[in-house]
Design a protein that fits this description.
The complex is a heterotrimer. Chain A is an alpha/beta fold. Chain A has helices at residues 52-59, 82-85, 103-112, 118-132, 147-159, 177-192, 204-210, 228-233, 250-257, 282-292, 307-315; strands spanning 3-4, 14-23, 26-36, 41-45, 67-72, 75-76, 88-91, 165-169, 196-201, 213-218, 221-226, 239-243, 262-268, 271-276, 300-303. The longest helix of chain A is centred in the middle third of the chain and has 16 residues, at 177-192. The two termini of chain A are 20 Å apart. In chain B, strand 1 (50-55), helix 3 (60-70) and strand 2 form a beta-alpha-beta unit. Chain C has a 4-stranded mixed beta sheet with strand order 2-1-3-4, sandwiched between helices. In chain C, strand 3 (96-100) and strand 4 (105-108) form a beta hairpin. The chains are: A alpha/beta, B alpha/beta, C alpha/beta. Chains in contact: A-C, B-C. At the B-C interface, helix 2, helix 4, strand 4, helix 6 and strand 5 of B face helix 2, helix 4, strand 4, helix 5 and helix 6 of C.
Chain lengths: 321, 383, 372
């Protein structure tokens, strides 16, 4: 069941059509279709094993695939299509740097694969180091860096040459919150500077935070795609309300269930969880109802539906299972 | 016995590599065995070498030299043309070339200039021919000093007396070199290489940092883990040993299995097995990574075998070298092997010597083992 | 591309293991060779235990002759009765029995090196005796001078190459060693090609996804690995020449050319083995070990005569065994003085290297993996 809300229109910067990849009898990508438009931060969201990394590796012409087509910048992607590769940058899931070279040397080296001019390259490398905040670590070797700093180095190596299209495969795994924020801000800045970014993650919050358009993957397929609002608009839930420390009897619960826009109410262990359709003043109505019946309550939370809710709605399982 | 089973699984998953190494080194073994015999025979051969002679001198002494050599070896007279000489040496139509210059007597005998000869590198027989020619020339020089003319010298040096050599009719002597002695002679290299590369690699895999930490944090005591690992690898070693002994039985049949010394051969190879397993264990423990392991195993295996008498017979090595070699277990294995070759019926002295050699190998094995355990412990504490 | 080569070299140099082991192993082995048989030509053998049995009363000359030899350590002689001597021979306490008879003779119970030496001792006794007898007969007044000369045994033979320059008879092991050392470049080549294969490391994946031409990447690796390894082998050569004192006759430029070609060969081999096939890295290391050791073995590394035996029974192997070609090129410089064969060897090596590289490039160029 594929629900697509946006209209692709003309072929995107990256166009994937009916991509199939098998590992023996296991189907990793099952007729995947994707379009990434220029200038967006495109999120690929899905649980572990959904095929995100496989899709990226196919796009990079590192993996063989069984069927389908991949076009980047309007050209068919192949291992020796250096014209296309020139404008691409990659930041892979595993840190890909030389243990033996310093921070500066690593970035200089990888930038050198794309930029031949020595003076220009030096400018770009210095800029990249500033960008990721590793000025104080220029001469250090990767072994001396913490996880977060290492990831920043990993990113710098992938973007120093100012590519038009950047692939980022789970760049914030095992990273401290400070580094993570820095990285996310950096990605948005890169986008502002003109790069299109394909960002994969299984962290829903990150994808919601930075991506302009999102595709949700499961079992090798794209099961839904669109902006966050479009995706969350797909499901019935418009608002989720959680009330703690409340004691209800059957009659009181029935009354709450009967409130307008409330379509699901679960009560367990003193916690009331309500799901409402999109409407104004849902929370006020519920609290008013409780006060009228002189029901005491503790903390109250109200949140918008998340992509996890979308995933749950479509597949019946959580994003993080 | 979880750790034991773990090692078995790792060994199983490496079976392709194991077969590969076994095949290669076994092939070496067969090749070595077929060629070593002929080389050894050649080495002891002080006669019958193919010598090419370029005689640019018409004198009597030159002729006498050629006659002298032809009494011992096969002589071919050649022209002094490089391409012809090259061909002869390449294809071993000649193993040795003597160039007798013009005015041979004046130059070499009166003036004492050296006679130029060419020998194929690596040929032992060349050394004997050197000695024989030296002997001839020195004698000629004595005559010259005593005032003899060239012709008189040549005349005096005719008719060399033949040395009478009796071969004792001794049933205790092995007689012809049996083929299997070369099979057993080569075993140290095979063991060291196969165990070193295979077991060393497996050991090293188990010592990877994170894996090691996980195992240290487990409820299985460290000592037990090590023991189970060693037990498994020892069983593997015994398996290989059985394979090789069966190989000997199959290839050589009754000539080996029926010989009186078969028990001693088996004992000697068992001692060698223990020793080489310990060496492999040590190599696998001290190597920080795979490249280092390859290097260490190569050095240990080739080094021990060269100095220990596997590739080059102990006979050929000088006394001072043999003193150094005594610090290598392979030397003792080869020594025992040589004794078993020499005595097809063991005397008491010979038996004692074999037991001594076996004992020394076991001591070496134990020493390497202790070293390995100490190294492993040191690595653990270092983290 | 200079940028890449520079970093490639820096990375390898900083990664100790990649070039240390291919460097140290041949040096250690060379030293061991030198220790084991650097001195064989001086026939510095162990003192040979023998017995002498007096069969006649007048064997003074012979006994004195043996005393002299005992003094300089060639043999150790013990006087025994016949039966005692035979028992000692049976128990192999002695290598032979010298019978001091009217015409001395020798009894041994096997054909070995010691027995051959005893035989040659007897021969030199007869030669010397005859010489002195002749001198006494014909110019007795010069006997003193003759005896003096006899005592002064000189080396009157000089080993030369066919072109006339002095050679070292044991050099064959060292040539095979240098040849194997050149081929060890395959480990450096493999180590560096490790990061050209995207399915082996994330680093390689990043490389492969870059806009760098694959051919250029391979050539970069080839160049950097080769430069480092050439340095390794050149140091080995220098060590053999100047530290161990092996005589290479000042033909150093030609030898350097051989090792240059040999190193290209070795590195190309490593790059090829790593480029083709989908096996695990350690299996590929095993393959390269197998290839280098087999090539070295067949070229005479463990066993000098091997090369000749291969020449007799399967000469085509020597035409294509890179180690044999390299060793052969050394022989051509140092023994046979054959520049045309030398050139042929180098040409074959070059063609083989070029072919290997071409295959690597073709394979790697458009490769995608089934699984990363």
């Amino acid at each position: 069941m594929i629900k697509t809300v946006d209209h692709a229109g003309a072929e995107g910067l990256v166009h994937i059509e009916n991509l199939v990849k098998r590992y023996g009898s296991f189907v990793a990508l099952d007729h995947l279709n994707l379009d990434v438009k220029e200038g967006e931060i495109f999120g690929l969201l899905g649980p572990n094993g959904s095929g995100k990394t496989t899709a990226i590796n196919c796009m990079l012409a590192l993996l063989k695939y069984d069927k389908g087509m991949i076009r980047i910048f309007g050209q068919e992607m192949a291992p020796d299509n250096y014209q296309v590769k020139k404008d691409m940058g990659i930041v892979l899931q595993n840190v890909a740097v030389f243990d033996e070279l310093t921070v500066y040397e690593n970035i200089d080296y990888f930038c050198g694969l794309y930029v031949k001019n020595k003076i220009r390259r030096k400018e770009l490398v210095d800029e990249a180091i500033r960008f990721v905040g590793l000025e104080e670590h220029r001469k250090m070797r990767p072994r001396k860096l913490s996880g977060g700093l290492l990831r920043r180095l990993n990113i710098a190596c992938g973007i120093a040459h100012r590519p038009k299209l950047i692939f980022m495969d789970e760049p914030t795994v095992a990273v401290d919150p400070q580094s993570r924020n820095r990285i996310l801000e950096g990605i948005m800045e890169l986008n502002r500077q003109g790069s299109t970014i394909i960002y994969t993650s299984h962290y829903m919050e990150e994808v919601e935070q930075i991506c302009t358009r999102i595709a949700i993957m499961d079992h090798g397929r794209c099961i839904a795609s669109g902006t966050k609002e479009q995706l969350t608009g797909m499901i019935k839930t418009g608002e989720k309300i959680t009330i703690e420390g409340v004691a209800l009897d059957e009659e009181q619960l029935r009354k709450i269930r009967g409130l307008p826009h409330v379509f699901q109410a679960d009560y367990e262990n003193g916690i009331l969880r309500l799901q409402c359709t999109e409407a104004k003043h849902n929370l006020v109505r519920v609290l008013h109802c409780l006060e009228e019946q002189e029901i005491h309550f503790g903390r109250v939370f109200s949140e918008q539906p998340t992509l996890n809710d979308v995933f749950l709605h479509i597949t019946g399982t959580q994003l993080r299972d | 016995m979880t750790v034991f089973r773990g090692y078995i699984k790792v060994i199983k998953s490496n079976r392709l590599m194991i077969c590969f190494y076994l095949a290669i080194f076994f092939a070496f073994s067969i090749l070595f065995q077929t060629t070593a015999k002929s080389a050894d025979t050649e080495m002891y051969q002080m006669r019958g070498v193919r010598i090419g002679v370029i005689n640019n001198d018409d004198g009597a002494l030159a002729e006498a030299l050629v006659r002298y050599l032809s009494g011992i070896h096969q002589i071919t007279e050649l022209d002094d043309e490089i391409s012809v000489l090259q061909e002869k040496l390449y294809y071993r139509a000649a193993d040795y070339i003597v160039r007798i210059p013009e005015d041979f007597y004046e130059k070499c005998i009166s003036e004492g200039k050296e006679l130029e000869v060419t020998m194929i590198p690596g040929s032992y027989t060349g050394i004997y021919v050197d000695q024989q020619i030296n002997s001839f020339l020195n004698n000629a020089a004595v005559y010259q000093k005593a005032g003899f003319t060239e012709e008189e010298t040549a005349d005096a040096m005719k008719n060399r007396e033949n040395v009478r050599v009796e071969l004792a009719d001794d049933k205790s002597v092995a007689g012809d070199n049996k083929d299997y002695i070369y099979y057993f002679r080569y075993m140290p290299y095979l063991y060291l290489a196969v165990f070193g590369f295979v077991l060393g690699d497996i050991l090293w895999s188990f010592q990877k940092k994170e894996l090691n930490r996980r195992m240290m944090a487990s409820p299985v005591p460290l000592r037990r883990q090590k023991l189970e690992g060693m037990l498994c690898m020892s069983l593997f070693g015994v398996g290989i040993w059985v394979l090789l002994i069966l190989g000997a039985a199959v290839c050589y049949g009754k000539s080996w299995t029926g010989s009186a010394n078969v028990g001693y051969y088996i004992l000697n190879t068992l001692a060698l097995l223990f020793c080489t397993l310990s060496v492999a264990f040590l190599a696998g423990t001290i190597s920080p990574n795979r490249d280092a392991l390859t290097g260490i195993v190569n050095i240990l295996s080739l080094g021990m075998c060269f100095l220990g008498g596997t590739f080059v017979s102990l006979d050929v090595m000088s006394g001072s070298i043999k003193k150094i070699s005594q610090f290598l277990p392979v030397y003792w294995y080869e020594k025992a092997n040589d004794i078993l070759t020499d005595f097809s019926v063991m005397t008491e002295t010979a038996r004692n010597q074999v037991f001594q050699a076996v004992g020394i190998q076991i001591v070496f094995g134990a020493a390497f083992f202790c070293l390995a355990v100490t190294a492993a412990r040191y690595k653990q504490t270092e983290g | 591309m200079f940028h890449l080569v520079r970093y490639s070299i820096i990375w390898k140099v900083k990664n100790f293991n990649i070039f240390f082991w291919p460097f140290i192993f041949p040096i250690i082995l060379g030293t061991l060779f030198y220790i084991a048989f650097g001195n064989v030509k001086e026939a510095d053998f162990e003192t040979i235990p023998a017995a002498v049995v007096e069969e006649t009363k007048d064997s003074r000359v012979f006994l004195e002759f043996l005393e002299e030899l005992q003094k300089n350590g060639t043999i150790q002689v013990e006087r025994m009765e016949a039966r005692e001597a035979e028992q000692a021979l049976k128990e192999q306490k002695i290598e032979g029995i010298l019978y001091a008879a009217d015409t001395p003779y020798l009894k041994v119970n096997k054909n070995g090196l010691s027995q051959s030496v005893l035989q040659s001792i007897l021969e030199s006794y007869f030669d010397g005796k005859k010489t002195i007898e002749n001198v006494m007969k014909n110019s007795p007044e010069k006997l003193g001078t003759a005896l003096e000369r006899m005592a002064d045994h000189q080396n009157m033979v000089r080993q030369v190459s066919l072109g006339g320059s002095t050679t070292d008879g044991n050099a064959s092991y060292f040539y095979a060693l240098v040849a194997t050392a050149c081929l060890y470049g395959c480990f450096i080549g493999q180590g560096s090609a490790r990061w050209l294969q995207a399915n082996l490391s994330p680093l390689a994946a990043r490389q492969c996804a870059s806009s760098m031409n694959r051919t250029a990447m391979i050539l970069t690796e080839l160049l950097s690995s080769f430069l480092l390894h050439f340095l390794n082998v050149a140091v080995l050569l220098a060590y053999l020449r100047w530290v161990l004192g092996l005589d290479f006759q000042g033909r150093l430029p030609e030898m350097l050319l051989v090792i240059l070609t040999g190193c290209v060969m070795g590195v190309s081999l490593g790059i090829l083995v790593l480029s083709i096939g989908k096996w695990q890295e350690k299996i590929k290391i095993g393959i390269m070990l197998g290839i280098t050791m087999t090539a070295g073995f067949l070229a005479g590394l463990m066993f000098a005569q091997m090369k000749y035996i291969v020449d007799q029974y399967a000469p085509v192997i020597n035409r294509f065994n890179p180690a044999a070609l390299i060793a052969d090129a050394f022989y051509c410089i140092n023994v046979y003085d054959d520049p045309s064969r030398y050139a042929r060897d180098l040409l074959t090596l070059s063609v083989m290297s070029a072919a290997m590289l071409a295959v690597s490039v073709l394979v790697v160029r458009r490769v995608r993996y089934d699984s990363i």
